[in-house]
Amino acid sequence: MAPKRWAQIDQMLEKALERPVAERTAFLDEACGGDAELRREVESLLVAHQEAEAEFLSKPVVEIALEELPALPQESLAGKKFGHYRLLSVLGIGGMGEVYLARDERLGRQLALKILPPHFVADDMRVERFAREARAVSALNHPNIVTVYDVGQLDGTHFIAMEHVNGQTLRETLHAAEQGRLNPKEVVEIALQISAALAAAHEAGIIHRDIKPENVMLRRDDYVKVVDFGLAKLTEMQQSLAKTLGADDDPAATNPGTVLGTLRYMSPEQALGQEVDARSDLFSLGVVLYELLTGSPPFKGHRPAAILDAVVHHTPLPLTQLRPEIPGEFERIISRLLEKDRNLRYQSANDLRAALKVFKRELDSVPTHSLSDGNRNSSGDVVAIPLAAQPGRWKVKTAMAATAALAVIVVAAWLFHPGEPSPWLNAYSSQVTEFPGEERNPSLSPDGKGVFYARRVQGQWDIFWQRVGGSKTTNLTQDNDADDTQPACSPDGGSVVFRSERNGGGLFVMGATGENPRRIANFGHNPSWSPDSKQIVCGTDYIFNPKLRTSKSRLVLIDIADGKNRVLLEGDDTAQPRWSPNGKRIAYYRRTKDNRRDIWTIAADGSDPRAVTDDAAVDWNPVWSGDGKYLYFASDRQTVASLWRVRIDESTGRTLGQPEPVTGPAAAEVLQMDLARDGRRIVYVTRRQDANLKSIGFDPVKLETVGDPIAITRGTRPSGSPSISPDGQWVAFHTLGAAQEDIWLTHADGNGESINLTNDEPLDRSPRWSPDGRHLTFYSTRTGLSQIWLMNSDGSNKRQLTFAEIGCSSPFWSPDGKRIAYQLTSDVKAINEQRRQPQGTQIIETEKPWAQQTPVTLPAINEAGDWFSGYHWSPDGQQIVGSAVGMQGQEMRAKSGLFVYSFATNRYEKITDFGTRPEWLADSRHIVFAYGGKGKMAEKQIWLVDTQTKKFNPIYSHPTQLISTLGLTRDNRRLFFTATDHQSDLYLLSLDK
Amino acid sequence: MSTQTPKEVTQLLIAWKNGDPTALEQLAPLVQAELHRLARLYMAKERAGHPLQPTALVNEAYIRLIEWQNIEWKNRAHFFGVSAQLMRRILVDLARRRQRVSGKSVHQVSLQQAEGRHKERTADLIALDDALRSLAEIDERKSRIVELRYFGGLDNREIAEVLGLSENTIIREWGRAKAWLYRELNKTTPDSQPES
């Protein structure tokens, strides 16, 4: 068949598939005309499509292949003689070879003999170096280090003969432990001994490189023995496969693979392929201690890249959140070990030992019984720690330090861009501003010594100037009550152009110290100067976070002298222009109709637009380097937004290579940046959001909140969408984040640990308890498209309820639990192409399989075709409350106001003009909802409305936090909500100290 | 005793990338041996109730075999493309060899029927490979999507990233590619059913 003919068939097939099954025949009748073969082809493919749907090719072939491949026969050497060693029995098998219990027939002693796989020992030099190190470590004769007797070769097989430890690995100890974790006292003891071993080895100049639970043995008499010093180095790649000694099972039994197992304990510098040093071992030890205490490693992922990403960028969940009884001091010690920047860790194993000893003394000095209240631990024994009374939050400091560690090359760079490393790899990082709240829009002065930025003080934005490295700030726009933002310093350093909302809004120019502001345009955002300081190019609309962007901006040129302007570019959404240093081209952000967000350049005369990036990632905020050789930009190509650059010809806009990472993403998103003209300083904005669950008392009779809120979650991972179990004991919620979005349970009183119900890469969101408390429904992208799922309330038996062709989200139950309603994700493209698809809210029956379902779609809200996004079913079963969504031009927009759908009338009633996330009270009459808009509404964030009188009033507000998702207990006596704190700050990267 | 180091594997990969067809012949047994070794681990884990993630295994195989630093992957797409292709070649070759040994006829079993039956999978894989080649002749993109997903173990999001397409496009293309392949594999061949 000719490709052309196939293309025609394929296109017809696609169109047919977009239609409901019932309409396909009619469609083909019409569309295929007299082409009987075309029709036959499409029809047979439609049948095949149906049949192939479920199982065909559903598993990757590797899975099948692995079951199929005949495992290599395992030749056990047990019983055989190996030189003067008699092999007695197998102790373990794994990636780094096989370990036997053996007898040295000459000396008559028992030992462990590790046989190394040939390809790890092909390099004689390396083997020799390893042997030397092994001998050096053994010569220390340290009680906490396993002694190596001999490294050698017999009949071409390399082996290591070493002390046989009668005990088990920490991995096995963890497996055997109650609840899979150890108590703090045991862990301190182990930590002290490992750090003693490390201190001795480090002093002898030997780094372990592979500290993990499999490499630490616990002898029966509680002696800790560290195994395999330096062995990791033998394998070239640092993710070595050092192997359990004296164990009868595999080292990584709980991990997906040995390499992956090792990755979890790797320090960020190891993960990035940099030189390791003694402090790298300390990081790995921190990971081990964290796992010993919580039973779960701090950095997780199913793929190497995901684990490495977590190691390099993610701050682990606070220990005290997983296990509140862990003493604050211990948490501090471990979080210091886990600092991304090794300069912030303990600088030596001896420093760590000192800290551990002080802590242990405190532990031991407090009589166990005197602290019995408040310090229970679930295994029944009481942990006595003076500092435990305030478990506290994971320090803000930790997150800051993670941000400070921004000057690292990203994992993908290591894996996929092994070329010249960016000079920024070793840049010095410092925090420029640390005010509470937000700072944005940095612009460096031409000499790079000062920075202009916008900062919000008491709700109002002003433009500030600050010397880099200094702390004194000057407010340049304090004379004015309007918001002033987006400053850009002119290339001659004399003026600043900025956006102001004064007098109807527009662009203004003032002197660099704030004098003589004057209007140059009554529109404009993100202004950029021409190199001669005579013109400005700007967008007509603003970008902060391009992912949230739906409006359409044009690029406009303005003459500074007379304010005359002309449109440079319109059509697609184009914004954030930046003039190149030689003045010939302008770089900008462009969003096309199919939502690709890339960087483009255009000649300053408006001709010759050309793509710089053309990929699925979101790219924005282009900035030229001072010499015009690079274009820097922000991009989410590594999940969390970070800085990238690409070599470019400034005059033609042609790129001269692939984008390369400038810095790695940190704990926070990098949203805006500027680059000094000499190319040696970058100032950028990171933003963090802490979203946590809180609950407050509610009086269902007086209809008002009671008392102050209490904290339910205290993580750095944003939590939201609370749903309270019918018995009021548990809260289900989801955590959002760059790496994973999962569902958790926690105690409704805010005490105790959170339980992870999903832990995987697909998004899992919006859990809702079934009325009988036995199940949770949620939505998940585990099949690619977001669909509705159900699981038991302990997280078991996850099953897919909907198999729809478009996304389904935000499920909720009917009060009798027999039905589940959910929102359909509108496919804007389909709507624009006038393809018919169900929209709005659908209802299915909980018990029926999908094939037998006839989903009921609720009608459109009005004649304009706005549809209804249902959120919550009234307890009397008669009504659903939700909001409206509709098309506005080519785009989908949420319409303001809450609507109630009545099953009795099949009609909607508008209840309010504002608000989101409505929840019914038990009386099926009142509704609570969230809203924190601008102006007077800004501080009133939880509201209550009477659906009969439509009277509404605020019931809770917070001056700075944003309140979003709500959840009520069944008795309506407690109200749960998400409270979000925003923080954005300026950071500086400098190539000079 | 063979003493292949990561370096040699890397050299071979580079050679293969540069168009040396003999490199694959040398490469295949190395990757295969690694897969065998992993299969052994895999079985042991499964018996112990800790099954491994198959994609993790493939990743692991590559990480262990390759000196990452010395290969200039043009980009992610390139890397994933190469590994999926390599995996396809190796597994299909393996299947062909096994089939030559058992001497069975191929085209009779549908993949779906074979689900759960080991022996027949070998035949399926060869048939699938053939069908995929036919598909590539008329629709290169669909064939790549199948290769990346089925042989490379990538999910829709990753494929979207690799090919620079939207995830929705991938989902739809994958559905249609499966339909085509399914129909192709279930066609009754002239050999098995003489024309009447």
The largest contact between protein chains, plus residue counts on each side, is: A-B, 76 and 82 residues
Strand order of the largest sheet of chain A: 1-2-3-4-6-5
For the residues shown, what is the average pLDDT of chain A?
80
Number of helices of chain B: 9
**pLDDT under 50 segments of chain A (min length 5)?**
70-75, 235-261, 367-420
- Count all strands of chain B and give the number: 0
Please state roughly what percent of the residues of chain A sit in beta strands, choosing from under 5%, 5-15%, 15-25%, 25-35%, 35-45% or over 45%. 25-35%
Which structural class best describes the helix and strand composition of chain A?
Answer: alpha+beta
Question: Helix fraction of chain B?
Answer: over 70%
Oligomer: heterodimer
Residue share in β-strands of chain B: under 5%
Note the run of SSEs of chain B as H and E.
HHHHHHHHH
Radius of gyration of chain B, in Å, reads 18 Å
Sheet with most strands of chain B? none
Instruction: Give the overall silhouette of chain A.
Output: globular
Distance between the termini of chain B: 57 Å
Straight-line N-to-C gap of chain A:
66 Å
Query: Quick one: biggest sheet of chain A?
Result: 6 strands, antiparallel
Gyration radius of chain A, in Å: 32 Å
Question: Residue-averaged pLDDT of chain B, rounded?
Answer: 65
